[in-house]
Amino acid sequence: MEFGPHLLLAVIEGSVGAAVLALTALGLSLVFGVMRVVNVAHGEFYMLGAVIAWYVATFLGAHPAVGFVGALILAPALVAVIAMLVDWLALKRVGYDPEATIVATIGFGYIFQQLTLMGFGPEARPVDPPFNSRIALPWFEFGENGLEFYFPWGLSVTSYKLFVIGAAAVLLIGFWLMLSRSKIGLVMRATELDRETAQAFGIPVDRVYAIVFGLGAGLAALAAVLIVPIQQAHYLMGHDPLLLSFIVVIIGGLGSIRGTIVAALLIGLSDGIISVFFSPTLAKIIATLLVAFVLVFRPQGLYGKKAA
Predict the structure, then answer these.
(1) Could you tell me if 185 and 178 are in contact, meaning their C-beta atoms sit under 8 angstroms apart?
(2) Which residues share a beta bridge with 149?
(3) What is the model's pLDDT at position 78?
């Protein structure tokens, strides 16, 4: 295959990764932005979403679409409830102290990982996609008659991967509308700006924190449900998403939703393209170096605010 069509496939693969990464990192950024909590268990919430998706799809059986839709609804909801319990059991008890919450989320992440290993097992298990037909992609070249389109052999993508990209885009737009146009979004933004003032105006800050923590975990689980038909469910699958989410949040700016999405596109696309043409290890090295450059030349991130 020529370089151009090969690059197109790499961009599509990178777009799938960027779409899922944007949802995952958005949950991490939301929790930090509103609560000032670094959720180290975020990767395990992602993993729980994939594992619960496998259980739901297996239980419902029937057509893969039935299991997938069930997982898409139940897995994020269950993970959100689990996260709210973590908030009530630990984070609220320590007064959302930054250092204490890091220790608490590390502990809960380890607990979730080991419980999953005991109940789910060490092997990776697939979830069937609801549809997975291959779609031929066109390419072009300049011939004697001008621009000519053709279909190179091997230049195709599965319909499910295109669905992941589209679904993530719809979810991100929906989240932005919720945050900017709804009452709950207004309450979250008010709590983020000034917790004490929000309490003075009668906003139940502890309840808002619980909802935000659950929503952040639910977004990670939703991303995992979308990707698990491609990557399979495994009890250690939360490590890379957590690392990449931290990279995205640092580059985009801590607590910046816009920065998170821009950085996720940047990291996801570069990771996909470099992994296809070179190696996944090189992609991770470049992402880490990019974080180093951002921390040196723009510590607040691309869209973060400078410390007062």
Answers:
(1) yes
(2) 140
(3) 97
Q: How far is CA 147 from CA 4, 43, 150, in A?
A: 15, 46, 10
DSSP letters for 199-256: HHTT--HHHHHHHHHHHHHHHHHHHHHHHHHHH-B-TTTTHHHHHHHHHHHHHH-TT-
Residue at token pair 């789910």: 120
In DSSP notation, 5-24 reads HHHHHHHHHHHHHHHHHHHH
Contact present, 271 and 287 (Cβ < 8 Å): yes
Backbone angles phi, psi at 157, to 5 degrees: -140, 150
Pairwise CA distance, residues 126 & 130, whole Å: 12
Q: How many Cα atoms within 13 Å fall on the side-chain side of residue 240?
A: 18
- 20 touches 46 (CB < 8 A): no
For a pLDDT cut of 70, what percent of the chain falls above it? 92
| pLDDT given for residue 121 in this prediction | 93
Q: Is the pLDDT of residue 184 over 60?
A: yes
Residue with tokens 């929906």: 174
More confident residue, 283 or 41: 41
